[in-house]
Amino acid sequence: MNKPNYQDGSIVNLMSTVCAACDATISPYNPHPDLSIAELKEAKNIIVLLIDGLGYHYIKRYGAGSTIEKFLKTSMTSVFPTTTSSAITTFATALAPMQHAVTGWFMHFKEL
Predict the structure, then answer these.
(1) CA–CA separation, 14 vs 105, rounded Å?
(2) Whole-angstrom Cα distance, residue 96 to residue 88?
(3) What is the rounded CA–CA span in Å between residue 87 and residue 96?
(4) Domain spans of the chain?
(5) Rounded to whole angstroms, how far apart are CA atoms 68 and 50?
(6) Which residues contact 55 (CB under 8 A, 6 or more apart)?
(7) What are phi and psi of 74, to 5 degrees?
(8) Is 91's pLDDT higher than 90?
(9) In terms of pTM, does the model score above 0.90?
(10) 57 burial type by CB count under 10 A (0-12 exposed, 13-18 middle, 19+ buried)
C-alpha cells in the first residue's frame, strides 16, 4: 500500500485542482501538478468519473491498450483510511479524512 501523498499526488489534490478551476477556494491542499487549472477553466463542463476500487496498477497490468489507459494522464494516491466512505467524502469536500472525519459508513461515539 502506498502512503497518501497529500502534498501534490492524491485525490485530495485532484479535487483541489477542480475547485481552483471553478474559482472555489475550499481546499487547503495544493492542486495536482500534472493537471492544468487553465485547461479545466476553459472547459464548459468538468466531469470527475470515479470507479471505486479501480487502481492505477490494475489498469496498467490488465488494461494495456484500452480506452481507459489511452486517457490516463497521471497516477495518484487515495486517502487514509482507503475506505470508500473516506474517498467519496474527499471527492465531495476536497478535504482529507483528518479534516472531514469520515473514516467509515458507520461510526460509534461512546460520548453520544
Answers:
(1) 23
(2) 11
(3) 8
(4) 11-100
(5) 12
(6) none
(7) -160, 170
(8) yes
(9) no
(10) exposed
Query: Three cell numbers at 18?
Result: 477542480
In order, the DSSP letters of 82-106 are: --HHHHHHHHHHS--HHHH---SS-
pLDDT digits (tens, 9 = 90+) for 33-85: 999 999 999 999 999 989 998 888 899 999 989 998 998 888 899 999 999 99
- Note if the bond before 81 is cis, omega within 30 degrees: yes
Q: Which residue has the cell 461510526?
A: 107
Q: Cell numbers at residue 38, please?
A: 487553465
Cα distance between residue 94 and residue 110, in whole Å: 28
Q: CB–CB of 29/21 below 8 Å?
A: no
